[in-house]
Amino acid sequence: MQHQLNIYNTLNRKKEPFKAINAPFVGMYVCGPTVYSDVHLGNCRTFISFDVIFRYLTYLGYKVRYVRNITDAGHLESDGDVGEDKISKKAKLSALEPMEIVQKYSIDFHEVMKIFNVLPPSIEPTATGHIIEQIEMVKTILASGFGYEVNGTVYFDVEKYNKTENYGVLNNRKLEDLLNNTRDLGGQNEKRGTLDFALWIKAKPEHLMQWPSPWGMGFPGWHLECSAMSNKYLGEQFDIHGGGMDLAPTHHTNEIAQNIAACGKQPANYWIHTNMLTVNGQKMSKSLGNSFLPHELFTGNHPLLHKGYSPMVVRFFMLQAHYRSTLDFSNEALDASEKGFKRLMSAIGLFDKLKVSDSSDINVNDLEQKFAAAMDDDFNTPVLIAELFDLARTINSIYDGKTKINQKDLNDLKSLIKNLVADVLGLTDDLQAQNDVSPVMDFILKIRNEAKQNKDYATSDKIRIGLNDIGFQVKDGKEGSSWSKI
Ligand code: AMP
Ligand code: ZN
């Protein structure tokens, strides 16, 4: 089947037909996490969105080299040039080595990604593993005249760059407007202009992670690692660069400037940005204190949650919104997704029980076209899921004997659904195991409830702790007790 994939390109603010530079190979770079704390559900949304993009490109036959970095040095608290390095700060607070922090949260990140069925990238490079490449890039930028050194720190000269290039190109912003709106005081007395940003930062003696460089002991600026590593693994120009929308105005804008200053080329042809997961309309973020950790959601162990949800229900909930729309987190929305997910999975579960006929009322080609049209339209997973709900109704109708399907169509339909649901959307039926134990668990909780009513707290606690030991979390709420798999 012929596909014309269209991708919304932040750079040109429109949907454009996707054309790989060197088909069937595709190079894709996505900014990964800064590993100084647990990943929250907002971060997960971004990585799940790019997982689906990676999966769909692979489904279309592209051989994707997917590079997603780990930031383990250089990311300051402010996202700019002020504040402490996030990892060093955490290391000091916990009296640990910075690399112990990096190790702990990288493992945590990988575990969470696995639970959400996010495929590993092809390369996962770290900032500390690419200090030499970053120093080389700073040297090139200095040689091209767009950088300057002051007292061991090297800055990027934004105003000079903007004389020949367009600094605000990614978000279509004029330099004058940006200058009027900046109040960045980082390195203020050293910088020539307020928009200038650090490529290499001089380290104070007590700074935990520092390396020798031509400008003295220091460490790389946060934006530099992605320019250096995308360049190393994907070349001067590659197909797709992505990350959360919050990264576009500064991190990605600076990345583009660095790459153009170093190589004269716009690094990526398509810039893809995912929108934010919000809570009551506000971006979910660690600093705002409104973030949920994945395991809190799985267990329901959070004051704002009335129960736990399985990882696949959460993934399904995320995919029911388009990656460029905001998605607001609420118990009600998750409940609705859980219902929908169950409906879809139980329809798919009927496949092996369907009776075949000699004739068929189903046109698998038409279905394939519809599904493809959704995904080819900028990876529109909510439209694909709506089409899958229609199909679930048809499967139920075949099961009830009201619609006919022949053997060939059934085989084709099964493999189409496997490709789209399991391989592209990355959904597996993790509720099945829960369904199996559900009646038993309800029975145990009923006995526990009776114990509580009789004020036999020893027994009710024994049941709760015993269940916890074998992997089931019990949550007592206003509407009674509920359970979830830990
Ligand atoms: P960080 O570790 O904070 O650098 O973030 C890692 C990735 O998660 C980046 O691509 C961010 O844009 C993204 N991100 C952070 N908060 C959210 C959110 N609330 N919703 C979606 N993506 C987010
Ligand atoms: Zn980056």
Description:
By secondary structure, the chain is of the alpha/beta class. The protein folds into three domains: 6-274, HUPs (Rossmann fold, 3-Layer(aba) Sandwich), CATH 3.40.50; 277-424, Anticodon-binding domain of a subclass of class I aminoacyl-tRNA synthetases (Four Helix Bundle (Hemerythrin (Met), subunit A)), CATH 1.20.120; 431-485, no CATH class. 46% of the residues lie in helices and 15% in strands. The protein contains 16 helices and 15 strands. The chain has helices spanning 41-59, 86-94, 98-115, 131-143, 158-164, 175-181, 222-234, 248-263, 294-299, 311-319, 331-349, 364-376, 381-399, 407-424, 431-453, 457-469; strands spanning 6-9, 14-17, 25-30, 63-68, 147-150, 153-156, 197-202, 218-220, 238-244, 268-274, 277-279, 282-283, 327-329, 472-477, 480-485. The strands form five sheets. It has a four-stranded parallel β-sheet with strand order 4-3-9-10, sandwiched between helices. A four-stranded antiparallel β-sheet has the order 5-6-7-8. β5 (147-150) and β6 form a beta hairpin. α7 packs across α8 (248-263) and α11 crosses α13. The radius of gyration is 26 Å and the shape is globular. It starts with 5 loop residues before the first strand and ends with a strand. The mean pLDDT is 94. It binds adenosine monophosphate and zinc ion. Adenosine monophosphate binds at residues 31, 33-34, 42-43, 45-46, 243-244, 246-247, 274, 276-277, 283-285.
